Amino acid sequence: PGVAFRPIADPEFRPSAAVENGAARYRGHCLNCHGVDAVSGGFAPDLRESAFVLSADAFAGVVRDGMLVSRGMPRFENLSDADREALREYLRAQAARARAISTASHE
Asked: What pLDDT, in 10s, does the model give residues 48-57?
């Protein structure tokens, strides 16, 4: 059996209109490695499980500053602060959606 899927816990998250922009940024920058809807296809981590999305500073460290370049994650220093935050919000929304589905299936 595989490892259990565990979307991040993010009780303070409330989606905003930025999710739409984040989805567009995701499709343009992340989809090829991280999969449709942030569901990993095996090459790169499932971002719905990544604690990096909980912190704007940690997320910027990975996405803008290249904290994980040595592990194959490119930096995207061309993203504006607003686009990077929208991308982070989209990933948080995907995790919340996955948590809701997972919770419903266990009731």
From this structure: 999 999 999 9
